[in-house]
Amino acid sequence: MLFHTHLLLGITFFLFTKNSFSGGNVIIFLILVLFGSILPDIDESKSKLNHWFGLGKIAAFFSRHRGLFHSLIFTLFLFFLISFFTRDYYAYAVIIGYFSHLVGDAFTPMGIQIFYPFSNFKLKGPIKVGHFGETIIMVLLALVIVKIILF
Ligand SMILES: [Zn+2]
What we know:
Blueprint: H1 3-17, H2 26-38, H3 48-53, H4 56-62, H5 72-85, H6 88-106, H7 132-150
Helix pairs in contact: 1-2, 1-6, 1-7, 2-6, 5-6
Bound molecules: zinc ion.
């Protein structure tokens, strides 16, 4: 999915989950969710994230696009890695964003290999990246966000 769709998905996941966690600053929590929601595309050299930080060449060396970095196995690993350095509250934030990214990509025809590297099983859907279907999803997400914030 596109950068903006991932951010919208991240915000949506944040709004639905923020009250389930406590133990830190909610603004930092939100920022970390948003960070997590774009982090998986670190394996794509042309992604926005790599445009900013130029880490793509390193990540692409370790994994092709939507390989390891788009798997639930790696998501779990990432959680333990982050929670080693900071409190669980913030580790959950990154993981919630990260997970929202995987959910978004799972709706695209290219799909994601959720159990990679242990299985090549692919989860995929009909929403073509950058096409009409994605626009509809973006609008729906925006409506959900507005509804949750206002009502
Ligand atoms: Zn992705």
